[in-house]
Amino acid sequence: MLEIKNLHAGFDGHEILNGISLTVNLGEVHAIMGPNGSGKSTLAKILSGHPAYEVTGGEVVFEGKNLLEMSTEERSLAGIFMGFQYPVEVPGVNNAEFLRLAYNARLVRHGKEEVDPLEFDDILQGKMDSLGMEPKYKERNLNEGFSGGEKKKNETLQMAILEPRLAILDETDSGLDIDALRVVANGVNRIFKREDNALILITHYQRLLDYIKPDFVHVLSKGKIIKSGKKDLALELEAQGYDWLTTTQS
Amino acid sequence: MSTENSVTDVLENRQYKYGFVTDIESETFAKGLNEDVIRALSQKKNEPRFMLDFRLKAYEKWLTMKEPEWPNVVYPRIDYQNISYYSAPKPKKVLESLDEVDPELLKTFDKLGIPLDEQKRLANVAVDAVFDSVSVATTHKKKLLEIGIIFCPISEAVHEYPELVEEYLGSVVPVGDNFYAALNSAVFTDGSFVYIPPDTRSPMELSTYFRINTQETGQFERTLIICADNSYVSYLEGCTAPQFDTNQLHAAVVELVTHDNAEIKYSTVQNWYAGDPETGKGGIYNFVTKRGKCLGRNSKISWTQVETGSAITWKYPSCILQGDNSVGEFYSVALTNGHMQADTGTKMIHLGKNTRSSIISKGISADHSSNSYRGLVKVSKNAANARNYSQCDSMLVGDKCSAHTFPYIETANSSVQVEHEASTSKISEEQLFYFEQRGISRENAIAAVINGFCKEVFKQLPMEFAVEAQKLLTLKLEDSVG
């Protein structure tokens, strides 16, 4: 469903991604690991269409379409969801109302009628129940005053509502205590029915992978994938660190 | 890398869509101001003696006054002799009904979204349409009069209800109150007059729509609203002007009076032409004095304003809380973009016991604009247990604009409670990216962020007005963000 070919991209004139190629098929979970500054988050931002990043070469095809020509909004409507590492706070905007805007944008895209706040409340409540989330998530404003863990839970709720085809979770495990990590991971596992979607997990540590089992693990260094393997590669990295890979690279 | 530009390049949308000029034959006085002009103006309107005296007294005061220099705005000196003080669409004869109004005029208001003709008029809103210096049409007048509500052009009230006009005109804003108010008192030509009799709630919203058409005319309108005991009215004001590259002067005066247990809710959505967004050329100078007096016990005056236009705004809708237990409120959203400058806020003067006031001010500045909040809370010796709450929030869009807050608090009574809170925030590209990543269009994202910021003010506006205000702000900001 997603094919990245020799992708070069950067920020403010600096090249960060240095020729990445990656194929993700429906039903697969890919973990992208690597040391700080290796370009993991940049890849997530490029795929979701962040305006500050610039693609300088290569191509990305998502479900037969040239992803790089699509706007951020179109990518989202086509089913790409990014779980943010640092979700922004938006004062005064009610969380439930924000979710309804996003949900309705999808309905409109599929030629369906928008739902009103009452109808949406049923849908939202259903998702919140299944994830075991407290009522505060629909009463409060979007990420305003949320703790790091609450923000990540809120990202999970958004993903549950939007039911993406491809989710890219950027360092979802950072800043979470073990309980919050379990909630988020369970949420992700519940949402992903393998036959309908695919998942890219960007993470620095292997502990998230204890909860969400990847089919493939890729190691990113200096903007390139330097090694790919199965689940056990993550364990190897956990035991030996990244150095043995990155030093042999140069 | 993405196609953001196609979204932000909605320049067509952003252009001021009310900038057209109506080609209509007008009768306009020669430029300049002196006693003869005022006499001629008064005569033209066939005014009773007290009106001419009122004008001449104001003119005399004005001659001794200076234009205020304390506001945080910069503009070249205005040559008051280079303005025409009267311009009116040439009447063919006295109008018996709306059908006789010049069709060009009806078309103008139609184009502005203010239908005046019988078939299309808004069912629950009565409209007084003011074009340059005169009121051209007032809808639902008869229906309102059946329950004793007077809603008519003030030029007509001067003839029909002279005792009311004489009693209240200048009772809240005295002729010599300030430079612009004195000028207005000397030369005002029309505006709206409202009287709500005792024990009456106005069954519909009353509204005035102001339109400046002529290039070198100042608009000096005057609004007077009186609510007798136990009465209520909600009043709306809207304004637009054509796009000229010279500045036009708008110096209005609005006076509100509430008697015992009466309430006036006054809402404004101001969208005067603000000048060229790139060069800052042209636009309206909006120098307005708005003041309400809570004369009676338990009475209430509430100002809600959404200011989105004008090259310069100088405006402080205020409340004099004279009656015991009276309440004053000020809810404001002031948006500045391009090269606009706004110095706006309120004054809450607590005179009576247990008087309460609240101030919620939201300033949004974008591009090269400057946005100042200036507010005074004054509590007199006799105003025991008076309370005030003020909240001033600023939002910055981009890094070339500025926001300023000037709160003044003067209390002469130790039993009062005055609270002031302030904050500054930014609408960021990261916020908009977050929305867009969830499939929400940029336009809806800006609307949501702005609406979130202005929520407390928008919920004070009548429903349709709130929707309109929200759209207006979004439109104006679309090009400034990102």
CATH topology of the domain at 2-79 and 168-176 and 201-249 in chain A: Rossmann fold
Mean pLDDT of chain A: 89
Low-confidence parts of chain B: 1-14
Radius of gyration of chain B: 22 Å
Give the count of helical stretches of chain B.
Answer: 12
> What topology, given as strand order, has the largest sheet of chain A?
6-7-8-3-9-10
Helix and strand pattern of chain A: EEEHEEHEHHHHEHEHEEHH
Low-pLDDT runs of 5+ residues of chain A are none
> Helix content range of the residues of chain B, please?
10-25%
From the helix content, strand content and strand pairing of chain A, which structural class follows? Answer: alpha/beta
What's the total count of β strands of chain A?
A: 10
Structural class of chain B: alpha/beta
Q: What do these coordinates show?
A:
The complex is a heterodimer of chains A (250) and B (482). Chain A has 250 residues and is α/β, with parallel strands linked by helices. Chain A has a domain at 2-79 and 168-176 and 201-249: 3-Layer(aba) Sandwich (Rossmann fold). In chain A, 40% of the residues lie in helices and 26% in strands. Chain A is built from ten helices and ten strands. In chain A, the strands form two sheets. Chain A has a six-stranded mixed beta sheet with strand order 6-7-8-3-9-10, sandwiched between helices. A four-stranded antiparallel beta sheet of chain A has the order 2-1-4-5. The radius of gyration of chain A is 18 Å and the shape is globular. The mean pLDDT of chain A is 89. Chain B is of the alpha/beta class. Chain B has a domain at 20-315. In chain B, 24% of the residues lie in helices and 35% in strands. Chain B has helices spanning 4-8, 11-14, 35-44, 49-64, 103-111, 141-146, 154-160, 162-168, 179-187, 429-437, 442-458, 463-477; strands at residues 26-28, 87-89, 125-131, 134-138, 150-153, 192-196, 205-211, 222-227, 232-240, 247-250, 253-258, 263-270, 283-294, 300-307, 312-315, 318-321, 327-336, 341-350, 356-366, 370-379, 387-397, 402-411, 417-426. In chain B, strands 5, 6, 8, 10, 11, 13, 15, 16, 18, 20 and 22 form an eleven-stranded mixed beta sheet that branches. A ten-stranded mixed beta sheet of chain B has the order 4-3-7-9-12-14-17-19-21-23, covered by helices on one side. In chain B, helix 3 runs antiparallel to helix 4 and helix 10 crosses helix 11 (442-458). The model of chain B is unreliable at 1-14 (pLDDT under 50). The A-B interface holds A 9, 46, 48-55, 68-73, 75-77, 81-82, 84, 87-88, 90-94, 97-98, 101-102, 105-106, 109, 141, 158, 162 and B 1-4, 6-7, 425, 428-431, 433-442, 444, 448-449, 451-455, 482.
